[in-house]
Amino acid sequence: MRLTDEQKAVINENSKKILVKAGAGTGKTEILTRRIIRLIEDDPTLSIRDMAIITFTNKATEELQSRLKRLFYRKWKNCTSIAEKKRFRYELESLNSCQISTIHKFCRAILDEIGPYYSKDVLFSPNFQIKPDSHKKAIDDVFEIWIQQKKEQQKSIEHLNIMPIHKFKEVVSNAYELLRTKGLDIAKVIKQTRRYANLEDPIQRKLKIELIELIEQVYEYHLKLKYHSLDIDDLLEYCYKILKENPNILERVKNKYRHIFIDEFQDTSLYQAQMIQLICDDSENAPSLFVVGDLKQSIYEFRGADTDSYSKIEKWIKEKGVVLSLSTNWRSEPDLVVFVNKIFDNIKENKKYVFYHDPLKPRKNKTKLDFSKISEWILCNGEESQAKKVAEWLKNELKHKDANNFCLLFRKNFEMRSFIEEFTKQGIQFRVVGSGDFFNQKEIIDSLKIIQYLKSPYLKQYFVEAINTIFIDKETDLQNLYEKIHSHLDTFTPAQTLDFIYKFTKIRERSSTQVYANLIKLKQLARKLSFNENITLYQFAEWLSAMVQAGKDEPQADVPKQESNNYVTFMTIHKAKGLEFPVVILPNLDQSISQQALNPEILYHRDKGTLEFSYEKYYSQAGWRILSRGYDEAVSLNQYHTYSEELRVLYVALTRAKEKLVFVGNERCPKDKICYQNWIRID
Ligand SMILES: Nc1ncnc2c1ncn2[C@@H]1O[C@H](COP(=O)(O)OP(=O)(O)OP(=O)(O)O)[C@@H](O)[C@H]1O
Fold it and tell me: Does pTM surpass 0.95?
């Protein structure tokens, strides 16, 4: 690969603070790795161990590690002197133990070295564990105590006039999570919300005060639980607060690293941005900072990504160091780059959304453009199934192209379901990458139905459900399965029962690689559960039923590589960040931007700093709503951010393709609907 002058300039820049601001596919990740090698080459006293390299996901960490491994290996191979050879061998060996990680692991490494810590709002033991749901325990415990107190004091609970208790708990949980992921000062929000509550009508006032009272108690209780168990949001918050209030610890961190690199900085959170400013301050011993990002690809607001923080850092680096840019897109066909530019040129800023577009430069300037090769529409009428039409289109393509050229990118995991069913039916090999809806898959729900039938074969409902599962077909008789297995049911472990079902029904021969991999994963989960606490089939069914009902987040099984390398990939647009595929297919483009995202029950009012709510009266049939006074205002402030973020999600999706984009939508999509299909139209 021949680096361009602008790429070389970035690699060789010597300023202590550098931000590389560049669009998709311009080589940001590429130059980040090459800069690391360049610094090590230039300074014999420097090692990868003196650097902290922060990525956004574990997958990105692996990708970066393997790119560095390749470059170090090449260096080692081409070295002429023994000393140099020894040095690069050491660097290669150091790759697995150096600080290349997500920001959370970076914070964990800092906290691990600190020891016990006590201050006003940070206290923890050095033996803390990472528990992803420690806040849930806080909510459960506080709720129980609070309800009990209200009963004893014979006080009514306003929320219970509107919603059942489990729903109320969910509201509190969502509100608390919202405040935490945004990194907001919870005490301040509580104070503001209480202040504005006085302006509300009597019912709304009572509801607001109740909600705030619970959040305050959860917040205080959670603080005590954190002594032993932090969750990942706490890692960032605690790390920042400790570094801020303890200069000795901050000095230790500054002295440990000589260089800090951050990839995908557009998805930075408030605490991450503030922490980086602390560590990389103006002092002599502070590490240098190298940050790459693209604000147009900031798509994680729901997880606390904060574009304001990015902009502040950009301003700060502009003052203290340099901001550089890269303009040429190396990923995509030149016509495709021009096509994507045209789409975003067309999107004009208005009251509803904004997209700050700066066009990408194609790697070659062409005088004659031909969009027919790089884009195609598959349009369905209202009744037609998009999944079926895409499967038929793909079957034709697969006659002359390998399946792994194609990737279907979805906005949400649940949208994959109909495609998974259709592809399975049509025998197209596919794999689902990183989707957290394992317990929502038909094969998993069907496994539960079969087990429920085997436990209670006399119940008609279970029989009917079981007979309609993927396990039963013309050649596989349900009754026969029961007769063969029932004498073993008391002695088999749940994993053995599943194994028997899979073998007896010969499901492997009839299912896709992904479906079978999920079934094997279920068997492994059953084995793990029995290993931990020796559970019965009955208990396993209870557990599985709870997981299915809760829609518990669990990734689908990885398809083993050796089985088939040639499959179509399914993933969400969010998971595809940083990746590239020859052909990208985008289904469901005619869907409206999620109403749930636009009108959630609980919202944070960005201007007032308050919590606002919109409750649907659970027991009313007419969709009766109770709104707090600032809700509508909060929605319109939020709507602007939601739509603008959706435009950025679309930008990420469109810029993943190397050769072609295939759009799937509805031929009668109303022109005034706010949806991807209308944003993409350039005619
Ligand atoms: N000078 C170059 N010549 C040829 N190919 C290049 C050059 N620079 C980068 N590439 C290739 O372009 C593609 C995009 O690079 P990279 O993934 O580093 O971009 P990025 O800016 O990080 O993209 P994104 O922001 O979309 O994740 C990769 O396949 C990379 O190998």
Answer: no
Name the residue with the closest Cα to ligand 1, atom 9: 27
CA torsion through residues 180, 185, 188, 193, sign: negative
DSSP letter (8 states) at residue 592: B
Nearest to 570, CA basis, from 440, 434, 443, 664: 434
- DSSP three-state, residue 5: helix
CB 424 within 8 A of CB 511: yes
Three state DSSP letters for 107-138 = HHHHHHCCCCEECCCCEECCCCEECCCHHHHH
Whole-angstrom distance, CA of residue 527 vs CA of residue 545: 17
Percentage of the residues of the chain whose pLDDT score is greater than 90: 55
Query: Of the candidates 678, 612, 619, 614, which has an alpha carbon nearest to the alpha carbon of residue 650?
Result: 678
Give the residue from 387, 336, 379 showing the smallest Cα distance to 677: 379
Q: What is the pLDDT of residues 398-457, one digit of tens each?
A: 999 999 999 999 988 888 889 988 998 898 988 888 666 788 888 999 999 999 999 999
User: Is 24's C-beta closer than 6 angstroms to any atom of ligand 1?
Assistant: yes
Listing DSSP states for 514-548 in one string gives HHHHHHHHHHHHHHHHHHHH---HHHHHHHHHHHH
Q: Domain-by-domain residue ranges, the chain?
A: 5-112+233-326, 133-230, 330-434+558-682, 439-549
C-alpha 413/C-alpha 333 separation (Å) is 29
Q: Is the dihedral of CA 645, 651, 657, 661 positive or negative?
A: positive
Q: What is the pLDDT of residues 289-328, one digit of tens each?
A: 999 999 889 887 766 667 788 888 999 999 999 999 999 9
User: What is the complex's ipTM, to 2 decimals?
Assistant: 0.98
Q: Mean pLDDT over residues 112-140, rounded?
A: 77
| Superfamily for domain range 439-549 | PCRA; domain 4 (1.10.486.10)
| Mean pLDDT for the chain overall | 89
Cα-to-centroid distance, 113 and ligand 1 (Å): 37
Topology (CATH level 3) of domain 330-434+558-682: Rossmann fold (3.40.50)
Cα 200 from chain centroid (whole Å): 37
Query: How far, in Å, CA of 585 to CA of 583, rounded?
Result: 7
Instruction: Find out whether 630 is annotated in a ligand binding site.
Output: no
Say whether 406 sits in a helix, a strand or coil: strand
Lookup: tokens for 305: 């990504």
Decide if 616 contacts 164 (C-beta within 8 A).
Answer: no
User: What top-level class would CATH report for the domain 5-112+233-326?
Assistant: alpha beta
How does DSSP classify residue 556? P
Residue 28 CA to ligand 1 centre (angstroms): 7
Nearest ligand 1 atom to the CA of 579 is 27
510 phi and psi angles, rounded to 5 deg: -105, 0
Q: How far apart are CA 105 and CA 606, in angstroms?
A: 30
Report the run of H or E that residue 21 belongs to, with start and end.
strand 17-22
Question: Does 382 belong to an annotated binding site?
Answer: no
Q: Which of 29, 337, 658 to mutate to test the pocket of ligand 1 (most atoms within 8 A of CB)?
A: 29
Model pLDDT, residue 4: 93
Cα 362 vs. chain centroid, distance in angstroms? 30
Give the three-class secondary structure for 555.
coil
Residue 22, marked binder: yes
